[in-house]
Amino acid sequence: MNFDYSGSRTDVMFGRGRRDEAGELTARYGDEALVVTTRNAMQDAGFLDDVLTSLEGAGVNATVFEDVQPNPTVENVVDAADAGGDADAVVALGGGSPMDVSKATAISLATFDGTPTAEGIWGYVSGERSMQDALPVVAVPSTSGTGSHVDPWSVVTYTEENAKVGFGGDVLVPRAAVVDPEIADEMPASLTARTGFDAFCHLNESYVAKGADALTDAHALRGMDLVNRHLRRSVEGSSGSRDAMAVADTLAGFCETTSGVVATHAVAHSISAFGHDVAHGDALASVASEVARYNVENGDDETKRRYGEIAETLGAPIADRKLDAHLVVDAVDELVADLGLQASVGELVDASPQTLAENAVTYMGTALRNNPIEVDEEDVADIIENAY
C-alpha cells in the first residue's frame, strides 16, 4: 500500500456557541478583516452581529460585504475585493457561496493590489494564472454540505462563457474554521436537504474516485453512515442530527481535499452553468443515481464492491457487495425522494444533454478523469439523457 494524504491544514474548532471565537482566530493575522456573507440570512438570525462582536472584542476592525449571490460570479468576487480595502484576513460567514467568494477574494486582495478585474480573476479559475498567495481565510460555515471550510476549492461562474468551474490550491485552504452547529439550526428544511445531499455526494464520490486512498476511505464510510442516520432527521429539525451532519460535512471536506470528486459533480456544475439559479444540491440530485448506474454497469470488480458498500451504508439489503452493487441506484433514488429533490435535469435547465456534456468536458475535465470508469463526451451525454 502506498499513498499520499493531505488531510486538513485547517485548525477546526467544533462546538455549539464557538462562533464567539472567530475574533480571536482572526486576530492572529492582523487587525483588519473583510467579512463576506449573504444579505439578510446571517444578519436576521443574529449570527453576523455575534461574529462582529467577537472581532471587535479581539481588536479587529471589520468591513462587511453582504452581497454574495447564489452560484457567485467573477463579478461578485470583484465587488467583494473592492470592499476589502486593507484587509489582513477574510472571514467567510455562511454557506458554500460565501466560502467560494471569500477564497477567490483572498487571492484577489493578495495579488491585484486592490484593482482586480473579472478577466484577471478568471485567469486563476481557468489556470492561466498561477496562485502564489492569498490572504488568510477564517471560515464560519452555516450549512452542512460544501466541506469548503476545510478544503482548498472555490467555485465561481463566468456567465459570458456559461462556465461554472472549481479551482483550487494550497493557498485557498482556510487557516481556521469555526464549526458551530447552532448556526445550522437556523437552516430551512429545503436548504438542509440540498446541502446535506452535497455532503453525501462528496463522500460517495471520493470513495469511488481514482484518487481514493485508505484514509479517505475511512472518512468517507463514516461520513456516509452519519448521513444515512442523520440527514433525514436533520431536515426534520433535530439539533442532535444537525451536529452529526456538521461532522459528516467536515469529513467530506477532508475527503474531497485528497480524493476529489467524479462525474456527478462535473455534470452538476454544467447544469448550474446554464441554469444560474439552480441550487447545487438539486443539480447533484438530478444525476447522482445515473452516474452510479453507469459506473456500476461498466466498472471493474473493485468499483462494483465500493458501490455495493455505499448501498449497504444507505441501508440496502446487500448479500454480496459486488453482485448487489446495482442496488445503489435505488438507494440513492430513495434518499433523493425522501429529501424532496426529485427534479430531473430537463426540469432544471433548458440545455440539451449534448450541450451539457460538452460543457462538463471543457470545464470539469479533472473530475471526469477522476471518475472510476473512463468517460468521454458521448458517455456523459448518455448519462445526462438518462437523467433528463
Automatic annotation (TrEMBL):
It is an enzyme of class 1 (oxidoreductase). Gene3D superfamilies: 3.40.50.1970, Dehydroquinate synthase-like - alpha domain. Residues 192-388 form the Fe-containing alcohol dehydrogenase-like C-terminal domain. InterPro entries: ADH_Fe/GldA, ADH_Fe_C, ADH_Fe_CS, Alcohol_dehydrogenase_Fe. It comes from the Archaea. The keyword Oxidoreductase applies. Signal peptide: none annotated. Keywords: Oxidoreductase. It comes from Halorutilus salinus. This is Iron-containing alcohol dehydrogenase. The keyword Cell membrane does not apply. GO terms for molecular function: alcohol dehydrogenase (NAD+) activity; metal ion binding. Residues 10-181 form the Alcohol dehydrogenase iron-type/glycerol dehydrogenase GldA domain. PROSITE patterns: ADH_IRON_1. The lineage of its organism: Archaea, Methanobacteriati, Methanobacteriota, Stenosarchaea group, Halobacteria.
